[in-house]
Amino acid sequence: MIAFAVSITDWSTYERCARRGIRRVAEPDSAILERPATGSIFDSYNAILDEAAELADLEALVLLHQDTEIVDDDFCGRLRGVLSSDPEVGVVGCVGALDVRSIAWWEGSVRLAAFRHRYPEHGGGFLDGFSWDHATGSPYSREGDVETVDGFLLCLTPRVVRDIRFDPSIGRFHGYDFDFCLQVREAGMKVRAVGFRAIHHHSLNLVSDLDGWVEANVAVVRKWYGRMPRVGVGPGRWRQRARKAAAERDLAVAMGYYYEIDALARGQDLERAIKSALTSIGWRLTGPLRATKHLAYVARKLFSPGVSQREQTPEEEGEERTARSGSFIEPRSGRLPETVGEGERTASS
Amino acid sequence: MIAFGCVVEDRVAVEYYAAPGIERAAEANSEVHLIGATRNRARNWNLLLDLAARNEALEALVIVHPHAQITDPKLCERIRAVLASEPDVAVMGAAGARCPASPAWWTGTVVSADVRLRYQEHGGGELPRWAPFDPLPAPSDVDVVEGSLLILSAWAVRNLRFDERLPAGHGCDVDLSLQAREHGKRARVIDTSVTFHGGLELVAEDDYAWLQAHELLADKWEGAFGADGPLAPAPDTPKPGEADNDEAWRDRAWRAEAEREAARSAAHTRQLHANAALRPLEAQLQEIERSLSWRLTEPLRRLNHWRRRRRALA
User: Fold this and answer.
1) What is the Cα–Cα distance from B89 to A254, expressed in whole angstroms?
2) What does the angle CA A63 – CA A65 – CA A68 come to, to the nearest 5 degrees?
3) Which end of chain A, N or C, is surrounded by fewer C-beta atoms within 10 Å?
């Protein structure tokens, strides 16, 4: 039996994301542990592990963030296949990396990233990990053993559920996944990345509580340096490393500044191009054509039967985004209803 | 007499930007020193100091970056007013920061006068140069001054020198400001205006000279002004004389590396937000360009383009 567990701080997010995915993939006999968070994520997850360890016939425990939505219909079958093919596997995730030296696993060599990051800001949108689309995935996208997986989706074997616990001395939220994977590997088990797909409904702010993140990073490195290969290592003497990292930190701040001012410049350029297009003779001459098309579109919408309310597949999200981007035009300028008509037509075609 | 100096690192830039600005701001008796460039900015600027120091009547030296254009015709008046009312001010500029945590001056509280950035990327345009740092307005005392426009009092010209050890001269503006502060003098961002004609990028991501200069300045200045001053020592700073491999430096290295990853993540977040915020505009433009109206009138635009080109050539 494959069990699913979520530590919940926001029930509406859970309903919208994790529960939706669990409903999609759970089997009739799957246990679903929906538990309110208690203290830190370390404490909450440990309470869940204690409970799951008591479950009879447990094949695997799937620990999900409340904002993680599994979208792989054959999730249980694939997970079962991975676990039965290699009994040494202890943890499975869908995003994993090699040469990981700190909790910033993305600074290592990311091996698999079978997720979609769906964000709510700026009207909403999504960014796909490089393994999301099997057909167009990166050439280095590979399923296989990794050093850590991202904690937004963790599949644990019964042995791990029974024997290993999250270490609350690390902090309150960050670093729990990397530390857990290190414990699993120290216990002689493998950590594996498998390309079952999940959507992470998450803000564009990649790391919340940067100070807490820094503290957790230091705690994990201090705990594992010399105990596991790679963790906390780097070239140069300690003083050189400290100075160099401080310089690179400030350079990163400068790059953030550059990204922001570059976007302002791109925004100016786009606004200029749009203004130039909308005030061009050609655009003004063809105004009646667009108005006619818009009227035809409105008429079609009024007299055609209602749109199906079924759930969207992730593949359809691309189309949805085109449609949403059409709607962005509406509030921007009073003189664009004709453009809205054209945009929506593009989306519906 | 207020002198002006500029290192001709880029002749075209000097002709188009720095020189017209100097002409606008200089007074009838102002000396203008234009010198050829060596590879090190600190060395170039030291030569400017030597040349300016020769004049007994020197009140201040204005060092102008080749890409900086002074747009304030009353600059000399403003400099004189500051020097008269606050004689302990030794270094002035159009932007700077209070209490930077490190040699990267923008890690402090940024203060900026009316500094514009005229860029060429993305079709060109103009933006407030330090806007992303949410700067406080000038005038204001600072600890370090940014070097696009650097104004030194006669005392500073005669008593301070840029540190030529700094690779490519990176950070020599910060260093000179800190030297002035060490002598009990003040640094100030004055209420003036300047336009910088240059790229959007502040520091190139692979600028190793900048990284080296940062390390050198940290070694030189960290802790020099106590716990409340610029480049204040971190709580875990090893004591002088501790060997490179001591535990304190190890902990500090791990913390700095963690902060680096956090800063990179924050920068990436800024990039994601910036790109997402532009998406509606991109979509709007794309829809216009894909529309039937736009495609139908393509020949008209081509004709107009051809006519405009022909007129320009004529």
Assistant:
1) 28
2) 105
3) C
Rounded Cα distance between A113 and A126, Å, is: 14
The nearest alpha carbon in chain A to B101 belongs to A250
Whole-number Å distance between alpha carbons of B217 and B176: 11
Domain boundaries, chain A: 2-234, 235-279, 280-349
* Residue-averaged pLDDT of chain B: 94
Give the CA dihedral A214, A216, A220, A222, nearest 10 degrees.
60
> How would DSSP label each residue in B4-37?
EEEEESSHHHIIIIIHHHHHHH--TT--EEEEE-
- Note down the domain range covering B300: 273-313
CB B254 to CB A218 under 8 A? yes
CATH number for B88: 3.90.550.10
Using an 8 Å Cβ cutoff, are B90 and B144 in contact? no
**Backbone dihedral angles phi then psi of residue B116, each to the nearest 5 degrees:** -105, 150
Q: What are the distances in angstroms from CA B125 to CA A67, A132, A308, B66, B113?
A: 41, 38, 46, 19, 19
| Rounded distance between C-alpha atoms, residue B12 and residue B9, angstroms | 9
Place of tokens 């696993």: A105
Q: Please report the ipTM that was assigned to this predicted complex.
A: 0.86
Look up the pTM and report it: 0.83
Within chain A, how many helices (H) and strands (E) appear? 12, 14
For A107-161, the pLDDT digits (tens) are 999 999 999 999 999 889 999 999 998 777 788 889 999 999 999 999 999 999 9
Identify whether B188 is part of a domain: yes
The predicted-structure confidence for A235-291, as pLDDT tens digits, reads as follows 999 999 999 999 999 999 999 999 999 999 999 999 999 999 999 888 888 888 888
Tell me the backbone φ, ψ of residue B94, rounded to 5 degrees: -100, -10
Cβ contact A263–B277 (<8 Å): yes
Residue B253 included in any domain: no
Question: How many CB atoms neighbour CB A288 within 10 A?
Answer: 11
Torsion of CA A153, A155, A159, A162, to 10 degrees: 50
Chain centre distance of CA B7: 16
CATH of span A2-234: 3.90.550.10
Query: Which residue out of B287, B290, B296, B307 would a mutagenesis test of the A interface target, given it has the greatest number of A Cβ atoms within 10 Å?
Result: B287
